[in-house]
Amino acid sequence: MKQNVNEFNIMDFQEKRNIRIFISSTFEDMGVERSELAKTFRELSIKARSYNVSLHAIDLRWGIRPGESVVELCLNEIENSQPFFLGIIGERYGSVPSIKEYNENLNLQVKYGAWLEDAFAEGMSYTEIEMQFGAFMEMEKAEEKGHIVFFIKDSSLRGNNPQIENLINKIKRYQQRGLCDVSDYSSVPDLINKVRCYYESELETLFPKAQLHEYQIEQLIQKGILKEKAANYIPYNNYCQELDSFVRGDFGQYYVLSGDDGVGKSSLLAFWLLQHKDDDTFRFVYNFIGDGNLKYNTETIRRQIYTEIASLYGMTGMTNNKEEITEKDISDLLFDIPMDKPLLIVLDGLSKLYRNAENEPVTLQWFPIPIDSKVKLIMSDVPDDVLAHSAIKQECIKEIKPISDITDRIKIIDDFLGDYGKKMSEEEKILLANSDNCSNCFILKTILNELIYFGKYDNISDIIIWLLESNEEGQSLFDKLLVHYENHYTRALVKDVLSLLVVSKNGLEEGDIVKMLHLRQLEWSQLFCALNLHFSKNDGKIRFAHQQIIDAVKKRYACYFDEYRRIVANYFEDKVKDESGNCNANAIFEVAYQYFKLKDSEMLYSHLSDFQQCDVLIRRDYFNTGKYWKYLIEMDANKYNIDVYEDVTNKISEEYALFLRSFSMFCFEVLCNYQAAFKYIEICRHIHIGLCGEQSVEVAIDYERMGEIVRSAGYLTDPLGQALEYYQKAYEILIDLSGDHKNEIFYNLLEMGEIMMQLNFSPNDNNPFKKAINMLNEIEVDSTVIARIIEDFANNKLMHGLYEEAREYYKDSIRFRENTVHSSHPSIANKYISIGKTYEAKENYSKAIEYYLLAKKMYEDLFGKQHDTCGRTYYIIGRVLFKTQKFEEGIKYFDDAINIWNSKLGESNAGSAEALLYKAKIYAAINKNDEPSKRARICAEKAINILEKIGGWEELINSGYDFLAKMYIKKYPKIADLYLQKIIKR
User: Which of 32, 216, 640, 858 could form a Cys-Cys staple with 212, CB 3.0–4.6 A?
Assistant: First the structure.
């Protein structure tokens, strides 16, 4: 059997998961088709990501420079694209190259020989030469259909051109032999639709993903993103070597790449990861946040990382029956990783994680920071985000600088354009690379992207100059892009779509955008593809991918935003509930948010006063629901009454009771309206009594909620006593219930124990804490909870001066915590501080220092020496050193604490004031003569000034004046009296 000549190429592109499609057609009559196809292939390239495939269309509308052989360039690109070829036949046969191009080009003669010489001699057009080489010659060697397709315009034969007729007949003969696909088309939209369908089918046939779990599909997408981002990275500034040093060295467990949007953090990480794909010294998992298919929130990314790690280490059974993956689940998983197979986790683009509609960045608390040498974590983010979190050590942050070298920028240009078979002249490249704006990779690629999809051979320089030049209006690149898109797609379309997206709360689905604006699908698809670099699509919703485009949209269209908010609100108004009365959470989020932004208090209240809608908002959008209610109350507390849910007529149901419980705690925690909170939990309890009877778990829970509320209710005369009564009622119900309610009883005892500790009850065997501890063998509870119980019991002992017993409890709590966290975890260090306090209270200062120094080293290793926790530890150590008269050492520790607090909080902070007062006492103590110490006076007065400026520190201020009076009383009693008078005045 004759070997299929495409076999090697097929294996090659399937293995590399890379498709290049050469588009062959005439130019003058196919300008519209080629422009629309460029946009369609952008859309297809996005779809290809979900198959872990990179897809590029090679369309040589421009990129052929004067003096270059057009034929040679086209044939080279066809070879690079095989086995894929797309031919379009229209009404023109096309331009015919001169035989001179062949005779003067030795490369063409040597490489292609007789057939190409015959083609020139016969007067073949450029288009037919492309088809001869890319399609006909390949099909002559093949035995079965490959990846060659032709689209023939139905008007192609109207001109009775024998050359076109001959070309079409040749194509039809190959079609009859089953070697290619051929389809007629009647219009540009018809062509676009058929091309899209053909290549969507190709993707599914060549890279089937049927029966894959969504997280497996996400893995494929992430792999595609990895290759895509790595492709254009230029290694410079030794960043890769520094990442190597971090992974292989002993420099801590995490590393942060910081830098402005677009400087190349993602490309660097992708390039570096690909370099190590065959490295067996460590394994890695990664997520380029905001670029994948999953909704980019902490829950989905945590599950993705968890699932991949479990799969990587053969621990897939651990994911069974887990509705949610928590931070602890990941910590447990990381704990089980074998020492001989270390793991690297890469989280790129943390700034794309948002927790609410106001785009406030999440903290790092959602993902565990590794503290074990077998696991390392690399993150990337913008400076104002991750760097704002004090848990990050400055020495673990590497700032990525913009690309300053012009040669590096030109290399990016060449590589980026090369994927699309395009070139720039040296003058055009230098024009682009010399711009300071293009030191940012994202800006540079944005401009290149516009040139690829909108440029023509005769306007490249003009587009570059226009995009880069500054003008009197102060337009940014993204301001100009909006103008650029308006010129291509109409101002109305661009304004409508972008304004809708920028006012939406959580992004919008494509179908919703099309319906809201009554768009044709083609209109939307073309604009979406043009703007794809600036969009992210997750969980089916489209959002903007970066702040620059958001700022440009707000600047250009802000005066219209209320109009679009009303469109969004009206659209989702009809979708809040379906015919069966079931709530649509997304619709509820949008209408509430839009009416809040519109300051339409009437409509906002109408939705919030529907308990089912308010319940959805409380459960799923807690932060914003608080803002909505606070706004309404400020507008008119009588009209928009928080008592709206009091009437329970026709609402006696478990659903309503549970809502009232939730709303009660919402009033308590968010609105700080304790009276409303208590009233609603009482109504909830009465409903539960009617539904379940007095002796029920639900009523017991309601009593506990009542206790929780009254504990904080300042208007009550005995809040703790009343709270204890409610918890006691819950306890009495629980112990009399049939069935297993040990867990509920256990936690009830904890709450009662805390209240009794606040009420200064003497600890004894009947103490609820003691009862809870005695239950530990009867219930399933994790070691962290046990540690917390023991710590509370230890605190109780410490409060009553039982220092030895407290110390032993603290040591027990450490043993339990070490069952779930690493021995260097900060919670362990906290307990060392507590143990030190028990020794300090008994004036055993050497043992106190020993434990404080243990905590100090752990904090420094975890957070770095500039963390505020280290400042507090330095202060505590300085205080003990003062007591042991080690004055010089004490001053050093106080100075370290002051420097940290001043840098974090500014110079007017209470911590620094307290440290200054101790420094004053040290200077007074070490003064060798009987004269008052000038340094002591300066420190004390500075501390007093800080405290007076802050306000609310009268007791400490008085102690400062008292110290100064005592220092002057022997020699200068009048000065001492002045200080004492200040105390009296206060």
Answer: 216
Q: Do residues 267 and 442 touch, judged by C-beta distance below 8 A? A: no
In the chain, the largest separation of any two C-alpha atoms, in whole Å, equals 121
Distance in angstroms (rounded) separating the CA atoms of residues 200 and 209: 13
CA atoms within 13 A on the CB side of 347: 26
DSSP strand E in 851-934: where?
A: none
Helix 561-573 and helix 510-517, axial crossing angle in degrees, nearest 10: 110
pLDDT for res 735? 92
Alpha-carbon distance 460 to 432, whole Å?
11
**H helices of 441-574, where?**
441-454, 460-468, 477-489, 491-503, 510-517, 521-530, 547-557, 561-573
Neighbours of 600 (CB within 10 A): 17
Sign, CA dihedral 99-101-104-106, equals negative
Which one, of 333, 326, 282, lies nearest residue 308 by Cα? 333
Q: Report the candidate in 629, 650, 653, 623 with the shortest Cα–Cα distance to residue 641.
A: 629
Contact (Cβ atoms closer than 8 angstroms) between residue 433 and residue 413: yes
Q: Helix 601-608 vs helix 585-597: angle between axes, to the nearest 10 degrees?
A: 150
Q: Alpha-carbon Rg of the chain, whole angstroms?
A: 36
Q: Residues of 885-909 as b/e, b for ≥16 C-beta within 10 angstroms? A: ebbeebbebbebbbebbeeeeeeeb
607 contact partners, CB below 8 Å, separation of at least 6: 576, 588, 591, 592, 595, 613, 614
pLDDT, residue 9, reads 47
| Burial group, residue 32, by CB count within 10 angstroms (0-12, 13-18, 19+) | exposed
Between CA 478 and CA 483, with CA 480 as vertex, the angle to 5 degrees is: 120
Give the type of residue at 394: Q
Per-residue pLDDT, 11? 46
746 half-sphere exposure, CB direction, 13 A CA radius: 18
CB contact set of 357 (below 8 Å; sequence gap of 6+): 505, 506, 593, 624
Q: What is the DSSP string of 171-225?
A: HHHHHHTTSSEEEEESSHHHHHHHHHHHHHHHHHHHS--TT--HHHHHHHHHHHH
Which residues, listed in sequence order, are joined to residue 347 by a DSSP beta bridge?
A: 287, 379
For 715-730, what is each residue's pLDDT tens digit?
567 888 899 999 999 9
The residues pairing with 20 across neighbouring beta strands, listed in sequence order, are: 56
Cβ neighbours of residue 204 under 8 Å, at least 6 residues apart? Answer: 51
Cis ω for the linkage preceding 83 (within 30 of 0): yes
Which pairing describes strands 535-538 and 541-544: parallel, antiparallel, or unpaired? Answer: antiparallel
Domains of the chain, each with CATH number or no CATH = 7-206 (3.40.50.450), 214-399 (3.40.50), 409-469 (no CATH), 470-562 (1.10.10.10), 574-642 (no CATH), 864-985 (1.25.40.10)
DSSP state of 375: E
Pair 293, 218: CB distance under 8 Å:
yes
On whether the CB atoms of residues 377 and 408 are closer than 8 A, the answer is no
* Positions of the chain with pLDDT under 50: 1-11, 63, 355-358, 387-388, 390
Rounded CA gap, 702 and 718, in Å?
Answer: 20
Pairing relationship of beta strands 397-399 and 18-24 according to DSSP bridges: unpaired
pTM: 0.64
CA dist 699 and 684 (Å) reads 9
H helices of 213-326, in order, are: 214-230, 239-248, 265-275, 298-312
CB 255 within 8 A of CB 399: no
Q: How many Cβ atoms are within 10 Å of 3's Cβ, its own excluded?
A: 10
Rounded (10°) angle between helices 585-597 and 622-636: 40
Q: Map residue 258 onto helix, strand or coil.
A: strand
